[in-house]
Amino acid sequence: MSMRATKLIAKIHIAKVQLGLDDNAYRALLESCTGKASCKEMTDRELRGVLREFERRGWKPAPPKPEAPPVGIEIPPGSRWMARPSNWDDPEKRGMYAKIYAMICANKIHDWSWGYVRGTAKKMFEKTRGDVVLEFLSVAELHKLTSALAIHSWRLKQRPA
């Protein structure tokens, strides 16, 4: 199943919950639109058709997330996207932060953000550190985090679309 199909199925399930459909009504709607009772059996075109039917029935999709700004462009304070570390200008950590920022911009198609980086750091270091705050990671921990993000980014690019 492609990444696009996975995202479409996720949207369909969100719409199902927001419209308050029970399982029987949901499956009946799927069958009336495509003749199939499961999203996993559908093509991308059929999934988009189901989403259009949900929209016709009153479901409103969430607005798209704003695009990440290009590297080197200053982000206005208060922007949802700007959650970069408060010690961004720390000379010891500046290089690692810049590298992470470049990876965020390069992987915006996969919805990477500083929140994603913080979550990854939490998963990596919470067993050894307890409460993990990106700003308090050591240079060695930032290096490990950067390496993990680079490997994950490489794997995402290797996946067939």
Radius of gyration: 20 Å
Give a quick account of the main beta sheet: strands, pairing sense, barrel closure. none
Total discrete domains: 2
List segments where confidence is low: pLDDT < 50 over at least 5 consecutive residues: none
**Percent range of helical residues:** 55-70%
- What class would the helix/strand composition place it in? mainly alpha
Strand content: under 5%
What's the rounded overall pLDDT mean? 81
Terminal CA distance reads 9 Å
Number of beta strands: 0
The rough form would be described as elongated
Helix run count? 6
Summarize the helix and strand pattern as letters: HHHHHH
Descriptive notes:
- InterPro entries: Phage_Mu_Gp16.
- This is Mu-like prophage protein gp16.
- It holds the Pfam family GemA.
- It is a single chain.
- This protein is mostly helical and 161 residues long.
- It folds into 2 domains: 3-56, no CATH class; 65-161, no CATH class.
- It is 57% helix and 0% strand.
- The chain has helices spanning 3-19, 23-34, 44-56, 94-106, 114-129, 139-158.
- α4 (94-106) packs parallel to α6.
- The chain starts with a helix and ends with a helix.
- The mean pLDDT is 81.
Key attributes of the depicted protein:
single chain; 161 residues; mainly alpha; 2 domains; 6 helices; 0% strand; elongated; Phage_Mu_Gp16; Mu-like prophage protein gp16
Question: What topology emerges from the helices and strands here?
Answer:
Elements: H1 3-19, H2 23-34, H3 44-56, H4 94-106, H5 114-129, H6 139-158
Helix pairs in contact: 1-3, 2-3, 4-6
